[in-house]
Amino acid sequence: MVGIRELFEDQTAPAGRIVRAIAAIGSATATQLVKSTGLARSTVSTLLTELKDSGVVLDVDTKSNGFGRPSQLLSLNPAAGRCAGVLLGLGEIRIAICDLAHTVLSDIWFAMDTDYTPDDAARCVRASLEEQCALLGVDMSELLGVGLAISAPVSYDGEILNGSILPTWCGTNIASVFSEQLGCPIHVENESHCGALAEMTWGAAVGETNFVLFKFDLGIGGAIVIDSTVQRGAHGYAAEFGHMSLDPRGPLCRCGNRGCLETFAGGFQLLRYAEQSFGEPVSIEQFVERARNGDPGYARLVDDAAEMAGWGMGIAFTILNPPLFIIAGKLAEVGESFINGLERSFARHSVAPPAHSPEKRRPRFVVGTFRGNDDTVMGAVALVLRQHGRIANEASPAS
Amino acid sequence: MVGIRELFEDQTAPAGRIVRAIAAIGSATATQLVKSTGLARSTVSTLLTELKDSGVVLDVDTKSNGFGRPSQLLSLNPAAGRCAGVLLGLGEIRIAICDLAHTVLSDIWFAMDTDYTPDDAARCVRASLEEQCALLGVDMSELLGVGLAISAPVSYDGEILNGSILPTWCGTNIASVFSEQLGCPIHVENESHCGALAEMTWGAAVGETNFVLFKFDLGIGGAIVIDSTVQRGAHGYAAEFGHMSLDPRGPLCRCGNRGCLETFAGGFQLLRYAEQSFGEPVSIEQFVERARNGDPGYARLVDDAAEMAGWGMGIAFTILNPPLFIIAGKLAEVGESFINGLERSFARHSVAPPAHSPEKRRPRFVVGTFRGNDDTVMGAVALVLRQHGRIANEASPAS
DNA sequence: AATGCTTTTTTCGAAAATGAACAAAGTAGA
DNA sequence: TCTACTTTGTTCATTTTCGAAAAAAGCATT
């Protein structure tokens, strides 16, 4: 008999595969597990009874499919373990705790100095996690893992590569800093990649195995998902759509190049253009609100941004040929006008399917379901649930 | 006891996995197989003795690693089966036959009318294959598969999507046409994807599991390889680098968009520009020769093409973040001047690694090892060896 | 209520894969 | 030449996984 921790982390053993398959989607039927793990019916059945006996898996419901014997809906025992997700944001930290049945148990937020250090962050997160765990009546050592979402590319060993938002953090190994404080497995990923995991787990991409996500927010990021796996590339830089160089003579970008997509359609830039033109500083929420209401200047800014964004997505399509695009971030909340402009521009910048081509040869466009920075925190939780971006585990347990 | 054919095609059985692992790299040691298949040493050992007993696998050599017991080099029995690769080109067809130890047994070429039909092609290929097989003293029914390389994107079910080079072929299901004539498993892929397989199997990408290939030839294509798998995308369009739209007001492209990379750096266009400027039509071989010798006008054309190509590769890097770029196609034969220009432009158009970053955070650039259209035919063979792009198998054997 | 149909779930003997211990085959240095 | 060390290859009892058949649990029609 093994504990949930071992099962959860075992990459090869069938029992582990089953547990993680359930963790990934929250609840599942045995038949679904047969498909997603590739194991034999009998194997799944046997292991499932064992897992039920040891209290790791629970029957939660019974689901009829119209015909035939109804199937049992299974879920991991919520009491068997918990996962935490942490968003390390600009002057703020947000922490969510979930059980293994995907129920959010705690979701808190607190402000930080804008120049907080990794050590500050780790200490604050630890204090806060201890407090929250106490409220939930569990011990912090029961956490199966903590996921960190960072607004910067992260290398495979947990180092922050390009401190564009948090410049002083560049070069820090964020994973080891947190591992030392928290003493449990740490998973690190960049913010947009977390967003994709959140959409796969709770949002617009549930059940999708292949898609590309564009996140239009203050910055522009994205994620490439192939076979349900978020691609990280050789160094963790993959899907930095905001820094596709679209115009070699365009505006200078914070990354050091010119004419990046972000300089045309990034939120920071749009806000600056708006302030320059209308003389009044606005928040991104105000900006989105005015653009949605059709305020001419703002609408035009969004229109132009959509034009460039569609171009970028066209190029991404030419390279990756995904069946689905998910459009996320605050700019997506502008609604139809942004999405339509984007699709129109996309059509002009991607290889046109031949005239007789069936509908399915065009990619689908879907707007993400998360608002605010929910996608990021929840994605950080999903990091643990899906055992993605795992980095440190051999730290001594917090005393 | 099972025949090589079943083993070769069985996707799940360990024996099949071992056979295909050997087929993919030509010859291997048992330890390599343990790593690449993920099976236990004991399993590999047991199955290997069985495979040797049935004559499928042979000991070919013994390799010392300096320390420890030397390992046996294994190879598939060349007499156990053969694979054919077919290039369906512009006014020409090329066919290669290999044994399972990667030895080329036959490599022939013949001209076709420029407007030959798929049926013509299938009949000619069949006649030629029968002849070649007879010369080799084997029966055509012993072929383990035939790979087809096409100068156009191909869908998963073998349909030609965009007949840019062979316009009348658009919409044909090339796989079923050939399957009917040849009566053996057919594998279809687009030309550039085949090129990547050839480089992985015999060329510059041996041992590489992740890379991006750009092929600069008369057209521009490419391939994305992740975990040793050539990515096809949702519809088989993936890695159409030639049609990245770099300038919305640029020249019209045959794909219907403007300013595609191909309109700036594609061989067809370069030849046309050269003819317009120097009044004399040249072949691509002549063009490359003159550019390599530093002939000013040609050198400048190549320089400008490298500038745009580097830009395109920069964008691809921002999206995919590969550890390695392979540069293939006739334009690569121009040499240093093209490659250097390309790398220089790349550096200006991709996210710059921070100043302190280690060398390994930059992608490597390597020139492909194949010349002419060797990569394409050999890639078509590799299609079969690696069981990639498999489409038809249930056709009735040719009578 | 009974029967047929469909899908899920379990059971159980057979087959496959594994881990651990051992044997083999080489190098390097005493 | 002998011993220590390293890596490869084999054997076999134990454990794991599978396939096929049977049992179970619902819906729909008669």
Biggest chain pair interface: A-B, 47 and 47 residues
The oligomeric state of the chains shown is: homodimer
Helical amount among residues of chain A, as a percent range?
25-40%
User: Strands of the largest sheet of chain A, in order across it?
Assistant: 6-5-4-7-8-14
Quote the beta fraction of chain A: 15-25%
Number of helices of chain A: 13
Run of helices and strands of chain A: HHEHHEEEEEHEHEHEEEHHHHEHEHE
- Structure summary, number of beta strands of chain A: 14
Distance between the termini of chain A: 27 Å
In terms of per-residue confidence, which ranges of chain A show pLDDT below 50 for 5 or more consecutive residues? 394-399
Largest beta-sheet details of chain A: 6 strands, mixed
Mean pLDDT of chain A: 91
The general outline of chain A is globular
Cα Rg of chain A: 22 Å
What is the structural class of chain A? alpha/beta
